[in-house]
Amino acid sequence: MMKMNVMMFGGRVFIGVLMIAVFAGCTRQKAAIVPDVRLQGTTWRAMELNGSKVEFLQGQKLDVSLVLYRSGAFRGASGCSNLSGSYTMTKSQMAFSSIKVDRRPCPPMITVREKAFLAALSKTAGYRKRGGRLSLFDRSGSKVAVFMAVQTR
Q1: CA end-to-end span of the chain
Q2: Are 85 and 98 in contact (CB under 8 A)?
């Protein structure tokens, strides 16, 4: 009987130690993992435009987003309309041009934000990518947009 109690106690201790190790390992991993995604071919969802948080608005159909392609083309969405065009890029500079928008009827708040998004792209002169974040800057170095990488199916 005593031997069985010792074995059960030992089993509980083993399971307890195992659970602590698993949870401790998970905690360290979550803090240490920063997604390092490619700049090109990734869907970048807008988080901030000109210092204002980008939220999903009533009547919005699409995320405010951007995808850069190796060919120098880009596509995106303003929340209601789709957009496309071209971009040039060096190590720290970026500029968008030939921006085309398939203007769709949108609620007024989304139209205002669409104009802000297009203005931010037009003003872009530089960028910085760190992990899963992309920031765009104007010529004076002011941040005009912040994006986060998102997984697509």
Answers
A1: 57
A2: yes
pLDDT digits (tens, 9 = 90+) for 64-97: 999 999 999 999 999 989 999 999 999 999 999 9
Is the alpha carbon torsion for 129, 38, 46, 125 positive or negative? positive
CA-based nearest residue to 37, from 45, 29, 27: 45
124 occurs within a structural domain: yes
Range of the domain at 12: 1-33
**Count of other CB atoms within 10 angstroms of residue 25:** 10
Helix, strand, coil tally for the chain in percent (to 5): 30, 35, 35
**CATH code for the domain in which residue 58 is found:** 2.40.128.270
Q: What is the pTM of this model?
A: 0.75
